User: What shape does this take?
Amino acid sequence: MALRTIPIRRAGNRTNLFMGGDRELVMFAGLLAFALIFAAQELRATAFGLTLWFSTLYACRLMAKHDPKMRQVYLRHRRYARFYPPRSTPFRSNSSSQGRQYK
Assistant: This one.
């Protein structure tokens, strides 16, 4: 008897992106740029707000291209950072006194 295969559709497994970047980061950057432009109502603030918007949108798109879930991974890393046990790399050369300490 052959195993039953169930196809996983791409539409149900996609990350939630907006304008090519993480949805929350892009919308928050747009909100900041919008607030800066309309609160200051100056030409310099408009130029800075548009520069801020396009540079943040570029950074969010670049981040989503490398890893669409990078924001969630970073936030989880920040939350669990104090629980990470200290580990050395395989390239560390321990002295003989360090080796005797754990026997």
Observations:
- The two ends are 55 Å apart (CA to CA).
- Helices lie at 23-40, 43-66, 70-80, 96-101.
